[in-house]
Every structure is written in structure tokens, then in C-alpha cells.
Specification:
alpha/beta; Nucleotidyltransferase, domain 5; Actin, Chain A, domain 4; four-stranded mixed β-sheet; 15 helices; 32% helix; 16% strand; (California timema) hypothetical protein; Actin
Length: 428
């Protein structure tokens, strides 16, 4: 599918877009909603009844500085899932990989909080619709820009709240990596979403997807290790404060400086920065920490993976005819991708890795190109969802209220029931 959308002034639409990102344990702790006006040159039918929503985990990374901006950001806290009373995971086993050992009702309560999260969603959606949108959600179309890794139970809970409580006309779950390309007018790209909790890389070829909290941990442990400049209790800093330190003071260093530091020949560090936390005394963030906090993104983990190797391995897994177009159409999204020096360092790492013995015999690529999206990386997925919501294809691809009330199911890409041809389906 090719998106040739250009932002013009022919049609006006008010929309609400939802981007969903998940933690490793499948929990979504907070929802943040953005409402905005946008303009599109695509033919629009009944656009004033299109509503879109965006969900994310770390609003501290959002910065709105251009014309095509979300109008409002509304934090909506969700209850965290908890283990059943007295229940503990079996020794040495992970709850997510051994679900057969958990009672299904208990599993639902663990992951979604059962009715608790549904009631919270209904209350919060009603609050921002009345206070910020000043419209009734009833009989409106909704677009959910989600992560492909969003838990199925959360999607079903959100759909239940929107269809049964708010009686929306239709609902569409669309991958954030795919709709991001709507902002560029291209149909092939390697989309890398580098967020607060995780990095997700999805190749999109001809319009079809081809199927980091670690920074905070490294930064906090490094700051705590500097006993001369830190006040007592620094280890108890809130995640929001550590995230603010990362965004305001840290940067990605060059490949040359990183290599010298790795060899024990570290060059002179950048200057220290004084940082104040609320009413606490200000303390120094050493230049060494400012420079090294993001190195975790480029250092191999236990499996030998890093963000640069993720990109090259993903290209290798695609067909040969796809590799060059993908390498020349790399799109970075997510708040962490806005870090100063990130794009330049990633490009240098890619050019260095393709010359190593691991990749030189497999990839004959010397050119890597990055797109510059028309919006900031942290909300470009929202803009793509807003553009998609303004096209006439929305009604044809959405799940209608009538169909949902009959089946009580939300189509899921991970289920073969929705991804097989009619002649392949097995009737029981």
C-alpha cells in the first residue's frame, strides 16, 4: 500500500490518536492522550467524526515545537497488575513463558486487572472527552496507533470500553511503524522505534510490515557511584527525574571517542553540569556520565545484540531485493531517537560493522540513508495516525460496532483465525 499524502490546507480535521507501547512484562502503566487539528489533501468523508488516541509510557520525552502538534497531552494513570494473593512464579520460571501453570481467570486479572482497568479506562476517556475534546465519543470513529507487541488482552479491554460504554461507530488498530510512513509519502522503510522501555525494529516493504529502561539503570548507577558530588538519597530519585536528567544533560558520543574509552585511552571528558531536583540541593552530573549513559544502546548485550546489529540482522533476514531499499530508507522514531548525536553515531556504527568479518561477506551495502520526518520523532507516529484518519480508506478497514457486538472479538495479527484465506479455514 502506497501513501502519497501531503499536508495541505484543503480539509480540516479534529482527531484524537492513540500510540501503545508496552514493557517487557506486558504492562501498560499510563496512557497519554493527544488531541489536535491537522490538514490533509486526501479526500475526507465525515472527518469530524474521526477520533484518534495515543498511548505512551514516558511523556517526559515529548517536546512540541512545530506546527503539526498535538493540541493536548492528558496523563491517565492505570492500575498496575499484581500477582494473586499468596501466588508466586515457580522457581526459575517466567510467568510469561509458563502461562499454562496459571489459572486462566488469575492470568487475566494479572495482566489486565480485570474490571478494575476497564472502569479506569472508561472514567478517564469520559473525563478527557468532556473536559478537553468537548465532544461526545458516541458515533465517532477511533484510530488506535499501537505497537505490534501490545498485549491482546489490553486491546480487547480497550475495545470493550469504547464499543460497549461509549458506543463509538468504528475502531481501527493500526501499527505505529506502518502509519509513520504516511508522514513521508513512502511505502518502504526500515522503521526503528527507540523509546524509554524498549527498541522495536520493523521493516516495512511496499506498505506491509515484514514480520530502553537500560539507559536509566546505567545512568542512575553511574550517578550513585560518584560519591563526591551526589546528595544522600539519590538512589531514591523518581523515574521522572532520572528521565529528565537523561533528556536535559546526556548525549550520544562519537564512535571515535567511544573506541578510545573502550581501549582505556579515554579523551578529556565534557564539562560537568549542575542539576537541581525540586527542593533538594543541586548536584553535579559529571561529564563522563553525560557522555557514557547512552553507550548501553551500542554495546552488545548477553546475546550479542545492539541497536546497530539489530538493523543489520533485520536487513539480512529480508529478501535480497529488499535490502538496498530498506538500507536507504531508515526512519528513526521515539523519544530516545531525539538524543543529540544519536543519528550520527548510529550511521558511524553501521558503516563500521558492515566492514567487520561478521557482515562483510553477507551484506554488500556501503550506503545507509535516514529520513527526516516532518514532525519530531517522539510524536511522528501520532501525526501518521492523524493523516491516516483523514483518508477515505478508514471506514473500509475499521472494525464496526455492529460486527463487534456480534462477534465480541477484535481481529489480531497474531491469530491465524484472522490471517488465513477463507478456503484455508477449518470448520468444526
Amino acid at each position: 500500500m502506497s501513501w502519497k499524502t501531503r499536508v495541505k490546507t484543503e480539509q480540516l480535521a479534529n482527531a484524537l490518536v492513540v500510540l501503545s507501547s508496552t514493557a517487557e512484562d506486558g504492562e501498560i502503566e499510563e496512557i497519554f492522550v493527544r488531541h489536535s487539528s491537522f490538514k490533509t489533501s486526501q479526500p475526507v468523508k465525515d472527518i469530524t467524526n474521526c477520533t484518534q488516541v495515543e498511548i505512551s509510557r514516558s511523556p517526559e520525552e515529548w517536546k512540541f515545537v512545530e506546527r503539526l502538534l498535538p493540541r493536548k497531552t492528558v496523563p491517565i494513570p492505570l492500575p498496575k497488575s499484581e500477582y494473586p494473593s499468596g501466588w508466586k512464579p515457580p522457581s526459575g520460571k517466567n510467568m510469561s513463558t509458563n502461562v499454562g501453570e496459571i489459572n486462566p481467570p488469575e492470568l487475566i486479572r494479572i495482566l489486565c486487572g480485570d474490571l478494575k482497568i476497564t472502569c479506569c479506562l472508561c472514567t478517564c476517556i469520559e473525563a478527557f472527552a468532556d473536559k478537553h475534546l468537548l465532544v461526545s465519543p458516541k458515533d465517532r470513529r477511533v484510530v488506535i496507533v499501537e505497537s505490534l507487541l501490545c498485549p491482546t488482552l489490553f486491546r480487547e479491554t480497550l475495545a470493550k470500553a469504547l464499543f460497549q460504554h461509549f458506543e463509538v461507530t468504528s475502531l481501527l488498530f493500526t501499527p505505529s511503524h506502518l502509519v509513520t510512513l504516511c508522514t513521508l509519502g513512502v511505502n518502504t522503510a526500515l522503521v526503528l522505534d527507540v523509546g524509554y522501555q524498549e527498541a522495536v525494529l520493523i521493516p516495512v516493504y511496499e506498505g506491509f510490515p515484514v514480520l530502553h529502561a537500560e539507559i536509566k539503570t546505567k545512568l542512575l548507577s553511574s550517578v550513585n557511584g560518584d560519591g563526591e558530588s551526589n546528595p544522600a538519597g539519590l538512589e531514591n530519585l523518581l523515574d521522572e527525574i532520572v528521565e529528565d536528567i537523561k533528556v536535559r544533560t546526556c548525549f550520544v558520543t562519537s564512535l571515535e571517542r567511544a573506541k578510545k574509552a573502550e581501549e582505556g585511552n579515554a579523551p578529556p571528558p565534557p564539562p560537568d553540569v549542575s542539576y537541581s531536583v525540586g527542593g533538594l540541593p543541586s548536584f553535579n552530573i559529571p561529564g563522563r556520565i553525560r557522555e557514557q549513559a547512552f553507550e548501553v544502546l551500542f554495546q552488545p548485550d548477553g546475546d550479542g545484540n545492539s541497536i546497530p546489529t539489530m538493523i543489520l540482522d533485520s536487513i539480512l533476514k529480508c529478501s535480497i531485493d529488499m535490502r538496498r531499499p530498506l538500507a536507504e530508507n531508515i526512519l528513526l522514531i521515539g523519544g530516545t531517537a531525539m538524543t543529540p548525536g544519536f543519528k550520527a553515531r548510529l550511521l558511524a556504527e553501521l558503516k563500521h560493522l558492515v566492514l567487520t568479518s561478521k557482515y562483510s561477506s553477507k551484506i554488500a551495502l556501503q550506503t545507509f540513508k535516514f529520513h527526516t520526518p516532518p514532525a519530531k520523532e517522539n510524536y511522528v507516529a501520532w501525526l501518521g495516525g492523524a493523516i491516516f484518519g483523514g483518508t477515505d480508506i478508514l471506514a473500509a478497514r475499521s472494525l464496526t460496532k455492529e460486527v463487534y457486538m456480534k462477534t465480541n472479538e477484535v481481529p489480531d495479527w497474531a491469530s491465524l483465525d484472522y490471517n488465513r484465506r477463507d478456503d484455508e479455514k477449518i470448520s468444526l
